[in-house]
Design a protein that fits this description.
The chain is of the alpha/beta class. It contains 11 helices and 12 strands. The strands form 3 sheets. A 6-stranded mixed beta sheet has the order 2-8-7-11-9-10, with no helix packed on it. The protein has a 4-stranded parallel beta sheet with strand order 5-4-3-6, sandwiched between helices. The chain has a two-stranded antiparallel ribbon with strand order 1-12. The chain binds iron/sulfur cluster (SF4) (2 copies).
Length: 371
């Protein structure tokens, strides 16, 4: 179940500045829709990082060089979710050292590849350092991007940076494109170049259900229960999401262990009270789990259509679904949905649009099997 939001006037959003991109053609440098989440959920983290050890033998990070030829590497330094790991944690304000790591990885493993750095354009110092470094390296390109969610989704990254259209969930390695985040670059350097053991990863802990937002260094194989011990507020119920409340998953089994795919844990208070006049709250944006009498009918506001980053019309899926015509959703480019969750997030009627979309997609797959 995706997380719901209280109403905020979408019309009153500030307009998004155009993305500046130094190398790609103008028509590839922006997408419609999306949402600048850090404004709505500004999160501050303490710079002290706690180490959390596993009870058992920790697993090791392993990097497998792709079997396919890698023509392009995209390093994503443009996280768009407030609960994602901030760049400073890995870069430590020493961008040239990080870029030298990248250079060694490329030289050793991907000598023929072109490397594109997608950097949050708001991090001016990092952008400047990267541009200076790239000016001496003909294999490196720098793309300052506006960090509007979900710009860092592979579908949008490839479209914006390489001008390539890919399908949601498609393995980009099969197209010769390897996408890496900062933490994975650092781990590859440690394990493959320096030959050190890497058995832990940095995880961001945040949300209204926690005593504070923090970053922890967790050994792989540690349970979520152990990570959250003494960190959750003692009052009330809470819900736990892995990799964010928008495109991640809610979990109930806290014995689940951390692996390299877990970037963050978001804990939200389970609210069990009604919100007064949620439809006219224009200055408030709350990630809430409140379902008490909140669900309403579609009011044809089109907010979901306007926010969709891949130009879909989520309300059409909803209406097909409620008419009992789930299979008709496939007529409206359902397969292009990148499951970012923004339509559910923005819907003032708190409709579970992404949940419906996933259900229709599953039906579509069944249908393909039969035909
Ligand atoms: S339809 Fe899909 S891609 Fe569009 S906003 Fe909803 S979840 Fe995101
Ligand atoms: S589904 Fe929600 S956001 Fe979309 S038109 Fe209906 S009420 Fe508006």
């Amino acid at each position: 179940m995706s997380v719901k939001r209280c109403m905020r006037s979408y019309l009153s959003q500030p307009s998004f500045p155009r993305q500046k991109n130094v190398f790609v053609k103008k028509e590839n440098t922006r997408f419609q829709g999306g949402f600048y989440l850090p404004d709505a959920y500004p999160l501050q983290f303490c710079s002290i990082i706690e180490d959390i050890s596993s009870d058992g033998t920790p697993e090791m990070f392993q990097f497998k060089v792709p079997d396919q030829k890698v023509a392009h590497i995209i390093v994503n330094l443009c996280p768009t979710e407030p609960w994602a790991l901030p760049n400073w944690v890995i870069l430590k304000h020493k961008t040239p050292s990080f870029l030298n790591m990248l250079k060694e990885i490329k030289t050793n493993y991907f000598p023929g590849a072109v490397l594109s750095l997608a950097i949050n354009e708001g991090e001016c110092r990092t952008v400047e350092d990267a541009k200076k470094f790239a000016s001496n390296e003909d294999w490196m390109r720098v793309f300052p991007l506006y960090a509007k969610y979900p710009q860092d989704d592979p579908v949008l990254l490839l479209k914006v940076i390489l001008g390539i259209e890919v399908s949601f969930g498609q393995d980009t390695k099969s197209l010769g494109v390897l996408i890496l985040d900062a933490q994975t670059v650092s781990a590859i350097y440690e394990s493959c170049i320096l030959r050190n053991k890497v058995d832990s990863r940095l995880i961001v802990l945040s949300g209204t259900g926690l005593k504070e937002n923090e970053i922890v260094n967790v050994q792989l194989g540690t349970s979520i229960e152990k990570i959250l011990k003494n960190k959750v507020k003692e009052t009330g119920k809470y819900r736990v999401f892995i990799n964010g409340p928008l495109r991640g998953n809610e979990i109930t089994d806290l014995s689940q262990k951390i692996n390299w795919s877990v970037n963050n844990i978001v804990v939200l208070e389970e609210k069990n009270r009604k919100v007064m006049f949620p439809m006219i709250k224009s200055d408030e944006l709350i990630l809430t789990t409140n379902l008490l009498g909140e669900l309403r009918r579609c009011v044809y506001c089109n907010y979901c259509d306007n926010i969709c980053p891949v130009d879909l019309e989520p309300a059409l899926y909803y209406h097909s679904y409620t008419r009992g015509e789930k299979h008709k959703a496939r007529l409206y480019n359902l397969e292009k949905c990148i499951e970012c969750g923004l339509c559910s997030f923005i819907c003032p009627s708190k409709l579970e649009l992404l949940h419906i979309i996933k259900e229709c997609k599953a039906l579509d797959k069944q249908h393909e099997k039969i035909t």
